[in-house]
Each structure stands twice: as C-alpha cells, then as structure tokens.
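Structure ticket #2291
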Amino acid sequence: MTPREWHNDGRMRWPRQQGTAGMTTAPTTGTTTGVTTTLTTDLTAAAEASVERVAALTAEVALVAAPSNHEGDRARFVADRLRAMGYEPEIDEVANVIVRRGSRGGPAILMMAHTDTVFPFEVPLRAERDGDWLAGPGVGDNSTSVAAVMTALAILDEHGIETPADLIVVFNVGEEGLGNLRGSVVATDRFAGDVSGVLVIDGKIGHVTNGGVGSSRWRVTVSGPGGHSYMHFGRPSAIHGLAEIISGIAAIPVPREPKTTLNVGMVSGGTSVNTIAATADAIVDLRSESAESLAELVASARAVVERLGEGGQGLTAVIEVLGERPAGVLPLETPIVQLAADSARMLGFDPRFNISSTDANIPISRGIPAVCVGVYDGEEAHTVNERVFVPSLRLGMVHLLDMMIRTGTLTA
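Resolution: structure written out below.
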C-alpha cells in the first residue's frame, strides 16, 4: 500500500511529508519542520527501525485475552516480558502492571497504556498479518500501545538514555466499557503526589486528547406484580413502565455545546408473549464534555425515573449506577498539551485536538496535567476486524520516544 496524504477528517491518511523528513540528521537540539526535536540521530533511527519489533509484540499481546475486569492473564504476560527486560514489575491489587524507570528522584511522569479490551472471552482471538496490515480483535485498541511502550522502554535502555524525569509506567486495567477507569483511578491516586504530568498512550497518531468526556451509566430496573396478559389485564406492566422511562429520557433536551448525549443501549425483560412483565431493565449512557452539563442531565434523567414510582401505577423503578467517569478539559495552552502538539507537528501532522473518554479523564479531573496521544493508524476499532497499518508505527515510535523525553521537561 502506498502512503497517502493526511487529511484531518478522521480517515486513514499519512502526513504531508512521508517519513521523518530531516529527523535522521537532527542533533539533540536541532529542529524539524520548525519544531525542536529531543531525539538524537541514533535514537530516531532506532525508533524508525522498531516497526516489525512492535508489530510482532503487538500480535503476542493481542492473543492474550483481557476483557475488562478480567485482565489478569495479560497482566502476567506483560510483567513476564518486563522482567525479561531487567525490570522488577509490580502487579497491584487491581492487576495494573507497574515499573519505574530512572533514578533522578523528584517529580516523575506517569505513563499509562491500558491492557483491557472490549471483547469477552467467547470471541476467538487472532492476529493476522496481510502485507502492511495487522488484523484481529483488539490489535490496535490497545495491544499496539502496550507493545509500543514496552519497546520504547527497551530502546531507551539499549541506548543508555536517561530521560529528564523518571518514568512511572503503568499498564493499567479497566479503561473500556464498564471498567470505570478503575486502573487509572488507582494509579493516579497512588502517584498523584509524585508526578508533574500524565502521558496516556491510546488511539491514533496525530490526535491530541486534552479533555475527558464525562459519563454516568445506569441499569434502570422496573418491577411490578406481573400476571396473565388476558386474565389479569389492567395490571401494570414493567415493560410498559420502562418504555415510559425510555421515552422520557429520550425527550430530555441537551445542548450541542458543550456536546452532551444520552442513549439507552440495551433493554431486557418479560417472560412470554402472554405474560404481563414483572421486571424489565435498560442500560442508560449519559455523557458530556462538561461536568456541569452532565450533572444537569443526570438530574433530569433521575427525575424521569423517579416520576414512574411516584405515579401510583403499582410499579417501582430502581437505578443502579454501573459506572461514572469525570469530565474535564485542559486549555490548549497548557504546557503538556503544547508539548504533544509540537511533537505531532515535528512529524508533519496538524494536531487534532479532541475531547474523548480515556484514562486521562482521571488525572485531569484531579487537577493533574494529562494528555493522551496515539502511536499508530488503523481502522475498525472495537470490531473483530480491527486493523493496524504497520508502517504507521515508524512515525508512531518516534512520536512516543519524543514524548517520553519531552514531558520530562515539565519537571525541569
């Protein structure tokens, strides 16, 4: 496949300059496309030469099942690899894998790459190479990021590079689905007093995530007396009551800016076609870029649910909170955001600033500067046909190593 020009429309594209355009001869304090690079010639060459190394490790990672809340096997795989590299990894109480690189002391940089995937154990795993593409469930999100971070650590070690700040590297659990960012919560709370910033590795190269979409996810369960659909006609149906709730939630007005959304993604209940449903439930997803807008939406949705129970219909409705993610946004002028943007520009990308739901939500909500960047290009994420464009790792690894060094200057 011939690399194509990058366009900022979310589709598979390459930068206007193919390759690193001058970086291989840039000194430590030199410039590339007008932006100072932190990488030596040798380190840049090593990053560019690591493509197949990262791709092979990605395939190995992807073949170890790691559904959210069941990441133990992959945690042990990652820990074993790190141990073979000479590290002494710790697996904490939630199955985060943690290593520290450096001995400078002082404020460090916390790095995170999540190990979990959206796929349950029942989904057959594969990692198939077809020319420039690597395909299979979870190969990109987030097996490539996990492999890239491990490889970047190895490259720094092999070249004897001491980063400006120590790196606390966490291969964390619970980023996807109802994982509720629990790995990021545990890591951020543990190291909050020891770090000056957080670098999350997740997603596509060229994107700079400087904010977190907040969310509240519920299971709403409606219960009633049930009965025979003919003999007991007139009794309240839990399904009918749940339908009223769903309709009410769907009618809640939400602002376009800040972007705020609502969705009922799953519904279940009832026993048979001729039975008045005794129970029914729905999974509700409420989101916003703004903490204030999310709080307003949550209050409105809760009021809809509570009205059913207050209506004297003989039905009860209960909300079970399945997950909550905090919202927050860093201004574009925040130093760590600018560092990420400069690194992307160095490679020829026009940075795509965005607000998303990543492990960076947690540190941002705690007042710790954080940014999320990606190291590959690909398509069909969260499907069994996900694909990674392997040559994109050439720029991705340069970007990653550059960021591992750049962010250390936040402590200088």
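Closing remark: DSSP finds ten helices and 21 strands in the chain.
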